[in-house]
Design brief:
This protein is of the alpha+beta class and 156 residues long. It has five helices and four strands, in the order H-H-H-E-H-E-E-H-E.
Length: 156
């Protein structure tokens, strides 16, 4: 059975603040959540050790780096055996253009979040790598127009 933490109000405040600003100092974090620095640090360490906090990342501005295309691909496989699903998931992890991937239910088997420098690079990936991958039956793509919301991944 998965670990289900018994979090109190302070833990939730810590998670909310870290999700907003992962580089906040412990002293500032403790001020924001209303406790002193040493117990705040102990709580953060506990949240990390239990796996509630999985890690920290820099959020990069893709267009500023010349990566102008964000798209989603819905992929349907010919066969959905455990081995085939695992094989496709392993392959998706190797594609640099794929930034996140989910196994999904419904008409498709996987949803891929892709970021590319331009439309040509994305099309090349779809045609030469994705649609030609073993066991891939269907690929539906959706190009994004612009972001309208960009929040932390967990609603707190």
């Amino acid at each position: 059975m998965p670990f289900t933490a018994d979090l109190d109000d302070i833990d939730w405040k810590i998670l909310r603040e870290l999700q907003k600003e992962g580089r906040v100092s412990n002293v500032e974090l403790s001020r924001r959540v209303g406790i002193s620095a040493p117990p705040c640090l102990r709580r953060v360490k506990w949240l990390e050790e239990t796996g509630i906090i999985r890690g920290y990342r820099a959020l990069l501005n893709a267009p500023a780096l010349g990566l102008d295309v964000v798209a989603f691909c819905l992929v349907g496989l010919h066969h959905q055996s455990e081995a085939e699903l695992k094989a496709f998931a392993d392959l998706a992890r190797t594609w640099t253009i794929v930034r996140q991937a989910w196994m999904v239910s419904g008409e498709s088997d996987f949803m891929l979040h892709c970021v590319a420098r331009d439309l040509t690079a994305f099309q090349t990936f779809v045609i030469e790598e994705l649609t030609s991958a073993p066991n891939v039956d269907t690929v539906r793509t959706a190009l994004t127009i612009r972001p309208v919301k960009d929040e932390g991944l967990v609603p707190i």
